[in-house]
Structures
1.
Amino acid sequence: MKILVPIKRVPDPATTIKVLPDGSGIDTANIKWVINPFDEIAIEEALRIKEKQTGEVVLITIGQSTWQEQLRTGLAMGADRAILVKNESPLDSLAIARLLAKVASDEKPDLILLGKQAIDDDSNQVGQMLAEMLGWPQATFASKVEFDSNKVKVTREADGGLETVSFALPALVTTDLRLNEPRYASLPGIMKARKKELKEIPADSLGVDLAPKLKIKNLAAPSKRQAGKKVGSVAELVQVLHSEAKVI
């Protein structure tokens, strides 16, 4: 089985994010960059599938040359090869989905696994857009992935509980937190990653419309939370909720 895993480079969740004074973006100075945590889960699931069924795990990301670092991390985890679609300027979800669809049409994977969303913009769009462009069945928010012959059965987390869907390959699945626990890259894996193939493709060579359809007008940091207030009794609490908070 050939599995394509798109990944995104995002700030480390432990990093303190600062917005630029003009609100045009975030200050990237001194930020540690990592693989989007949901995409790490997708890599882990792809590796587990490969270990059970044999096959190939191919990573892909879209960004600048420095994004090779995250691809190398995925290769150190156990992926077989990687593709970097080079593009210097930021892209919206639609442009990213179009680029992934073009590469997927050339690579012809049996399964595409990617995180349900990126933790930086939380758009939760690329997987759905990509499946529609390819005309493939999809399952989002997967908490369990199983195979039966040439079909995949996915247990997905829905608002009302769990839902199980089944469909034939090729297909696309987006991963949720409870699917697995990603492995760490081992020292031998890190050494092997240096020799694995990492192919670079200029984004403008793929003949895809990259014109943004979404424009971010302004970014702002959330306002600081005000200190809480202690009350001496239930009666005082009710009075404060009524007169000050005006919620009752």
2.
Amino acid sequence: MNAVTVPLQTGKMLAEIEGPIGWMIFNKPERHNAVSLDMWEAMPEIVDRFESDPAVRVIVLKGAGTKAFVSGADISQFEDARASREANEQYDRISERASRRLAECSKPVIAMIRGWCIGGGLAIALCCDIRIASEASKFGIPAARLGLGYGAPGVKKLMDIVGPSFTKEIFFTARHFTAAEAQGMGLLNRVVPDAELDAYVRNYCATIADNAPLTMRALKRTVGELVKGPEGDLAAADKLVKACFDTQDFIEGRRAFMEKRRPVFRGA
């Protein structure tokens, strides 16, 4: 299946549409895909493009090459982009916007992790709905080795997934964890042999793409509001749930079930 390339302002990020999959690719393999400011800025643009295309049913993030998903923030930029409190706040605003756009995307988002997934790379993976990694992948947050403070939103995102104790261990030790350890913490949904990662993710996406898009949108919004606790807008989520019953997809799902055939959902 041929991929359609989406034009972007930077070559350090790639966006490709291949069938039902929108691929967001971190394209700086010479620096193990360390994420720079222009890469953060491109991420919301890519999500907007994929979300607006009804043919795209699932979004997958991956790193170029075989060494890393994202090895962290590009430290070489710190002297300029994060040299002062004001510059650092600007950097944080841009990276937080990208993270928020990923997390709030209405379509399923998968992190396909091969190799290093460190610091900012792990923060990006945490914004995804599902994380699938190769057995040789490594994970960690080296903030304590860099003297960086880590804001509450980022800490909460990790803690919501792995719990308080593992969150402290990850930060306190600043060490690299294996894929098996990360899965044991609940950080990863699946760990597969490196040679099988691409095929596994593609098959996974095919399964998701066969399902009703509006059902997944409603479920994703509901989960997102529930994790907010008392501040969650469950009424907004409930509107999306109820809207599913007024769609042609709901009719198609019922008919396909009765006719014992595979449903064909249109997202409407």
3.
Amino acid sequence: MTNAIPASAGVVQFRGLLRDTRRAGMPKQFFLPKAERAYGNELGINPSVDYAAYVRAIVNTKVTRNEVFGFKLMSWYLDDFLARLRDAHDFGNSTTNDMELLCSAFPGLRFVRIVRLHKLRQALSTARALQTGLWKVQKGKSILREPEFDPDLIEQSLHEAQRQEKLWEDFFRRLGIKPFKVEYEKLCQDYERTIRAVLNFLNIKLPTGARVGPPATTRQADEISRMWEERFIAERPSACSAASG
């Protein structure tokens, strides 16, 4: 079984929760261009020389004991990833549509899409992470610098969040499928129920009595985020109206 997990928000903790079940693969960005070199070295394969061999090796080795493989994709390198799969020639050619191409490379493919309904709060988190260099809050992690309220950066992050969501919507519309949708807000409210729903969609069973614990990462939202949200709404009401619309 193979499962893809495209995502745009809350992906770090969601990915970790799936991995911690030890039944849903170990979803990471194996096909992120800058990460492929390290994985290729680990496998003894040069992705730029034989991409098809790299894909197969990743699928065959990065699995859990129940033979489930999972990977994470982000919208900003989706098209490049599809192009490299097609250029490998082992999974399809110029006439092969995207769904056939992906299913050839990843048999049994299923999609889980992560969305954050509150786009402004997503933008606030992104703007903050861009400044601090801290994309997930964990004990012992240090920041590059203290974050400062930057309405231009927040609005830019808001537009980018909207753009990425449209890319995924267009992608799934083109494929003619409806992915299983995970809402970040619901994930934060009830980790276990959300993860169990995903596993049910993937036809993956947990051992009897197994529980899904809280993530190792911590939500970034705090008093700073709340203050920024109130200030941005007051200073850029038009941007907020466009986002909610």
4.
Amino acid sequence: MYAFQYERPANLADALKAVASGGQALAGGQTLIAALKQRLQQPEKLVDLGQVADLKGICMEGNHVVIGAMTRHQDVANNADVRKHIPALAALADGIGDRQVRAMGTLGGSVANNDPAACYPSAVLALGATIHTNRRKIAADDFFQGPYATALEPGELIQSIAFPTPKRAAYAKFKQAASRFALVGVFVADTGSGVRVAVTGAGNGVFRHAGLEAALSKNFSAQAVDAVTVDASNLNSDIHASAEYRAHLIKVQTQRAVAQALG
């Protein structure tokens, strides 16, 4: 490690002031702490958001489940409102990492980090969620901009994310055995006005698949996926899986997600 200033604000106003002055926000620390140890990031000031109560909690606002940015994965997984209105989101949260990760990692930290293989971005994108920051509201389709890149500006902090309640939804993930990140994860959401399909782990960032969305909007069944072609040319190919295998997994995980959504 190296020397840096550490602040642990007790309220949102002080947290925003510290971040605006150039501080690096620390949420659950599941990625940032490792990056600090390896000196991949070397902020002069670290702003620990762990004591900011205004950034925690889950509530219903109309037909939306609103989740505070500092809400832990385990709390999303166990919350009664999430389990009732968006059980797919609760199941996703319950499948992230291991118990230690779920006890420390946060929704806002994961979404702001936007790891290309993280689970939460697929839920945010497929459900058409809205990211609420200290400055504005950002639609999911405008938020994710590539690997580890988002629409957040310097000094901007995610405060909560509002998830509209879908007609039905499910998430299916093929795990990378060691990291438990998604080798390929697919979140399918039938919004009532169309189907949204978001894929994580397969490319350089989370993305929607227009072909799968069109097929499932016409016929919400696992069989409808068979006729869809998934282009492998822009998918990842590495020691874990070839691009072609990831393309195959996208279809398989989509079919599994649809089957889950249908019960």
